[in-house]
Amino acid sequence: MHIMQNINTDELEYAACISRNGLELFFTRLSRESFKRGHPKSMIMRARRASRAAPFGKPEEVRAIGHDDFVEGPSLSANERGLYYHKHIGKKFRLFRVVR
Q: From first to last of its 100 residues, what are the pLDDT tens digits of the chain?
């Protein structure tokens, strides 16, 4: 059993960030089809597991960020209550933060 068996799909997964205790994983998932159409749509995903030896469970979209835009590069704050990411707006990438 591979720890990433529920993470990797036929879409593009990248830019992973793991919590200090190793039980929570955030990453970017990019839709291949939207990329082919020239209008990339991506999501920040979150997966959890019960122990460091267990595989990560099925990931869920971080809904506070959404997926109508091109978002990527999740990074946890030092206290792990904030999640930083960047979003493509116009011709630039801008930094954002969500708090739990």
A: 699 999 999 999 999 999 999 999 999 999 888 878 887 889 999 999 999 999 999 999 999 997 778 999 999 999 999 999 999 988 999 999 999 8
List the domain boundaries for the chain: 12-40+52-99
- The side-by-side arrangement of strands in the sheet containing 24-30 is 12-18, 24-30, 42-48, 60-61
Written as one letter, the residue type at 67 is: H
Helix (H) or strand (E) holding 94: strand 92-99
> Whole-angstrom Cα distance, residue 85 to residue 96?
6
Whether 99 and 84 have beta carbons less than 8 Å apart is answered as: no
